[in-house]
């Protein structure tokens, strides 16, 4: 199931995207989104790293979208950060810096 607005993917039994306040659809129609051309640059459930990386992408004006970011904080699933292909190399450089930031270390419980 997918949100037709933010394109987030949901697992059963979810039928509604609370973030966008719309009902989910079985699949996103082809050609419905610029996100189809975007490529993954990071898959993680490390919330500190995700926050640092997202802030750095925003600060560098790199278009991006995070799929499943909220779910990754609630259950053992990965958020996926996607960017346009023309920004992939720059995003990878930013990711390298973010991964090596002391703030990106997850707290041990």
From TrEMBL:
Record-given protein name: DUF2007 domain-containing protein
